[in-house]
Structure to design on (177 residues):
């Protein structure tokens, strides 16, 4: 009986230790970029806009977390936030639908975030639904491009500057563990 209790205790301790080690290998990579939406954009017709190349913070975070790109096990988009920074106080009331894609050299374009039937009551901050897709290869590249496909239901009368923040949940093997 003592052996069974000892074995069960050691197994429970081992599982708890594994969970703690897993937490040490998980972290968040936050990248930021800008997008310009020009006045006069067509209404009710989807059109694409591209960000400049995004130089991911992944390599810095990997170094900080004592790992490297080839040790990445899983990367998923946790949050995709868009904020209209200029003109101040402008809302997303012109937007009907949005789809967001990630693209990197020699990798397929992949849908990562979206929102449909956007209401006029939304303010300057737009938090999109994220797609459950694996993005490890995109962060390993170090540089990627964000493509947005917008459909508007109102004419845009001013140029809009938009700040984009992406947060990726990363799980990696840590060197030495």
């Amino acid at each position: 009986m003592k052996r069974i209790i000892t074995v069960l205790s050691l197994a429970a301790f081992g599982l708890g230790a594994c969970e703690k080690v897993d937490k040490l290998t998980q972290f968040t990579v936050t990248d930021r970029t800008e997008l310009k939406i020009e006045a006069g954009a067509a209404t009710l017709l989807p059109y694409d806009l591209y960000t400049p190349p995004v130089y991911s913070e992944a390599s810095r975070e990997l170094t900080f977390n004592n790992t490297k790109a080839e040790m990445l096990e899983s990367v998923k988009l946790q949050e995709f936030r868009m904020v209209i920074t200029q003109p101040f106080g402008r809302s997303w009331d012109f937007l009907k639908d949005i789809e967001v894609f990630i693209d990197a050299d020699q990798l397929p374009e992949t849908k990562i975030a979206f929102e449909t039937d956007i209401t006029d009551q939304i303010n300057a901050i737009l938090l999109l639904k994220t797609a459950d897709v694996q993005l490890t290869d995109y962060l390993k590249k170090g540089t990627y491009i964000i493509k947005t496909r917008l459909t508007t239901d109102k004419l845009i009368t001013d140029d809009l500057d938009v700040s984009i923040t992406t947060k990726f949940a990363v799980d990696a093997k840590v060197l030495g563990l």
Remarks:
- The radius of gyration is 21 Å.
- The chain has a mean pLDDT of 85.
